[in-house]
Structures
1.
Amino acid sequence: MPTGEGVNQKAREYQHPFIIRITHWVNFIALGIMVLSGLRIYNASPIWETLKIPPAMTLGGWLAGARQWHFFAMWLFAANGLLWVVYNLLSRHGRRTTIFSKADLPGILPMIQYYLRIRKNHPPVRKYNALQKGAYTTVPLLAAGAVLTGLAIYWPVQCSPVTAFFGGYDTARVWHFLFMASLVLFLAGHLLMVVIAGWSNFVSMITGWKKTPPPAD
């Protein structure tokens, strides 16, 4: 017979492979550098005269310094993101748990109803629900848009077809800001969901393991 302590003890489940964890944190660092240095670059643009970001919320100290930080983080962000996408496309883990597929379509409405409190019981899911998988599949597209518009701004002559595709240099800057703003909104929502989900979810992205409650009797 198990003791009371053994009955209440939580089991551990392996949730996140090492490559998912390392790309997750590298992505967090790279995106943070890009956002803070980008806000300094944003302040220097003549098309944003009506709203300026406080210098304490920016990185780089001045325009040239901010550009150096920004372009360094851009390449880190692009390479790290490419590694994440390739791994998820090629691995069984990514195809089964992260990438949105046709099989996830029936799960969209129940999850929306649950989040709107129309449905009381949480729909049955595996690791990620349909809305989460949709978000994780869409975010790489937003990131690709941010990188492409960044290249259009960084090398407007060498990447002139890309710059032209986004409507020219100034318009590409606006698109770049919108793509980055979308990534920041996703990050904010992601952090909120982590807080709601609990401490064990945060720890699992460091160790790979998550404590799970024992099954109900």
2.
Amino acid sequence: MTGTLWVAGPLICLAVGALVLCLVARWFPARLRPARNTSLAAITALVFALALGLLLPLAALTGAAGETAGWEEYPTWQSAGANAALLRADPGAVLVIGVALALGLLVAIYSGRYLALDRRYETYYPLLLLLVAGLVGMVLAADLFNLYLFCELMSIAAYVLVALRRRTDTAIEAGFKYLIMGSTGTVIMLLGISFVFRETGQLALPSLSGGKAGLWTRAGLACTLVGLAIKSAIVPLHTWLPDAHGRAPSSISAMLSGIVIQSAFYAMLKVGLGLGVGGRTLGGILIAISTLNMVVGNSMALVQTNTKRLLAYSSLAQMGYMMFGIGVGLRYNSPAAIQAGFFYLAAHAAIKGLAFLSKGVAHFYCDTTLVEELRGTAARLPLVAVTMGLALGGLAAVPPLAGFAGKWFILVNAARARSLAAYAGMAVMALNSVLALGYYLPLIATLFTPPVTGIKPARIRVSPWMSAPLILLGGLTIAIGLYPGPWMEWTALAGACLLGWGW
């Protein structure tokens, strides 16, 4: 099943939308400039909605290929020539793209009011589209060089968006740190790709076609995986993440934490399996690394006083839970465990997006930065207190929210592996879930604690541009937890096909 333009449809839509948005922002009529931000936000949301529409037929084509399809049997698109650009839509890529486009749509709507006080929204919206376009191309890329190019497009857009508020020293510092570490990862990845090409003479995935990897391919694989591990914020290559997520606009923090680092992780899985790492080997590595992410993320979050840095460190732990589920599935030939890992990926995007967007509303209206400054939020911004409380409860795995369902599925399928490594990972995951209550529960309590002054503050009316995404994500956080069946079905094909590549 090859040669369908549907594979490139969402990518083309986002790229053309970014170009159109640049022109619209440049030639916007002077008499309409007071409404320029909301107009650009509406156009951006429309582009994301169109891209989601184009994803639906692609998802149908991918589903028609079935669970047992090999790499080459999924829908592809490529230009003419032996070494042409190649995109392949596998079920995992379609899932990641769907989450990214949906979250991007909500972020665009949210920014219609959130960016109103900024003066760089003409830059913000095209970069947001390019960020997601790079992400889409990266997870669709079926050759190493195009994966590198799209990864770089996503990264460059992210660097600028982190430092969007350039008049703030901390934003520039965070953006520069992200740039340095991300560029280091890019250079290491490009070096690894050159090693693979030196030995195999090709860049398509899979590169080995059943053969055994030689010295240069193994060296290239190691370099490429390290580069993508930096993009995925895998411990100990995570040090850029707290500053970047903590200083970026909250809307961009939602994208970075909700789906950007997860998309790089998915690309890392594809590269590892495509260059000959067996499922058992890769799964064992993921199980070991996941425990580091859990311990470091939760331990560092416990001592944070800045709310966004606390949420950023919690993202490290959440990545650990995802890696553990997928690692168990690859190690012990369990498609259900991989399915649970992908389910948690989708659930986490909704929960963490809700957390960062709620925090952004509190900062926009009340200029809150520290955890202690959130006292009295329930009186001033009751919607924010409820939605942020839901998000924190979901991250803490409070039943019946989405986070509880995700962690439960991961633990159940890990127990079915009946292995000492799986049991050890389960113990670490359970202990870290308890440890995380040490910062989630006090933060929830702070939201509903009256202000220190004892004077009841005036209630603030939140703009519909910002409240609508909060309500939708809050509803998703509850719905995914109460009715996980449809969401598990959505992730089933991704788990089965990934396991088929690794065994």
3.
Amino acid sequence: MIDEAKQRIASLAQPETKEFLVWFDEQDFSPADPALPPSLPLGQTLPDLPDLDFLDIETTSESQ
């Protein structure tokens, strides 16, 4: 148990862990109000439609 505690202390001293904990502290984890409609992304954040045009393919028939 002592070894686990020492590893945890070392982990908490890492800059990445500190950055994560600061980020985590800033998050709002309160549940959404169920009376409100669900939020949808704005039109600017949606991707463009894919290009569904097919290339012209030359076909040759080799009937002999």
